[in-house]
């Protein structure tokens, strides 16, 4: 009998914990003791995913949910050692490794991303740096500055409405546009927006020299709108609402 090295024993130990049905435990370890480790590790992973993806958890039966979690745990090779990044690893598993199953709802990956965003913003270490920002600046003549804790997102499915009793089987004709943000009380909120607001966010977030008026004038051109002031006045109201919610911090002058 060839004696295993410590490294080989460690690999066998970890492989068994990840996939106990197919990977034998190292020799000489009582199964009762291995069972304690098996349950502890799996329950920690499963519990974290249940809390991180509550809507997805509610969609699946217990059997199907645990089958998916076990497949993730046994097959996915995590790139991060941090427990808080398990949700991101689960998202990568859904995107790159999971084979579609009959019980998977349409829009599963988008729903998972939406639920992951909430956790990502909750634990983000980004700060709202107000240096060089005028909180009372003119949103039309200055450049509106977005909080780094506010993300503009577009989904094919209405992920913010999806639940066990509402699972669209087909992609809706209109995408869903959302701003998900962490407010001044460190609460993660979401705001449903229209395509024009999403375009306004995109223009201003990608051009740090563009004023609010310039962005709205660009939208007027793209829409070929016959009354520019209607768009600009409506856009100003939108910018003011975003600022009142902490999505916009103020303005900078470039």
Percentage of residues in DSSP E strands: 5-15%
Give the CATH topology of the largest domain: Outer Surface Protein A, domain 3
Name of the level-1 CATH class of the largest domain: Alpha Beta
Tell me the major beta sheet.
Answer: 3 strands, antiparallel
Total DSSP E strands:
5
Distance linking N and C termini: 74 Å
Helix content: 40-55%
Q: How many H/I helices?
A: 9
Classification by helices and strands? mainly alpha
- Unreliable spans are none
Give a verbal description of the structure.
The mean pLDDT is 87. This protein has 254 residues and is mainly alpha-helical. Helix 5 runs antiparallel to helix 6 (108-123) and helix 7 (195-206) packs across helix 8 (212-223). The strands form two sheets. A three-stranded antiparallel beta sheet has the order 2-3-4. It has two domains: 6-104, Orthogonal Bundle (DNA polymerase, domain 1); 143-252, Outer Surface Protein A, domain 3 (Alpha-Beta Complex). It contains nine helices and five strands. It is elongated and about 75 Å long. The protein has helices spanning 6-18, 31-52, 54-59, 62-75, 86-96, 108-123, 195-206, 212-223, 228-244, and strands spanning 143-146, 150-155, 176-182, 188-193, 248-252. 23% of the residues are buried.
């Amino acid at each position: 009998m060839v004696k295993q090295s410590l490294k080989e024993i460690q690999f066998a130990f970890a492989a068994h914990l990840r996939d106990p049905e197919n990977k034998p435990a190292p020799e000489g370890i009582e199964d009762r003791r291995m069972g304690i480790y098996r349950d502890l590790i799996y329950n920690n992973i499963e519990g974290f995913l249940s809390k991180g993806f509550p809507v997805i958890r509610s969609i699946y039966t217990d059997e199907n949910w645990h089958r998916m979690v076990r497949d993730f745990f046994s097959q996915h090779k995590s790139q991060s050692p941090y427990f808080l990044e398990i949700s991101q690893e689960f998202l990568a598993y859904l995107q790159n490794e999971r084979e579609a199953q009959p019980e998977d709802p349409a829009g599963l990956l988008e729903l998972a991303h939406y639920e992951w965003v909430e956790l990502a913003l909750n634990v983000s270490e980004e700060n709202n740096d107000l240096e060089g920002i005028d909180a009372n600046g003119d949103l039309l003549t200055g450049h509106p500055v977005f909080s780094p804790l506010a993300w503009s997102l577009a989904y094919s499915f209405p992920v913010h409405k999806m639940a066990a009793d509402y699972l669209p089987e087909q992609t809706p004709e209109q995408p869903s546009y959302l701003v998900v943000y962490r407010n001044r009380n460190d609460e993660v909120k979401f705001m449903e927006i229209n395509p024009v607001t999403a375009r306004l966010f995109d223009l201003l977030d990608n051009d740090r020299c563009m004023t609010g008026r310039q962005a709205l004038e660009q939208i007027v051109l793209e829409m070929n709108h016959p009354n520019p002031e209607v768009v600009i006045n409506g856009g100003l109201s939108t910018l003011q609402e975003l600022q009142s919610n902490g999505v916009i911090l103020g303005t900078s002058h470039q």
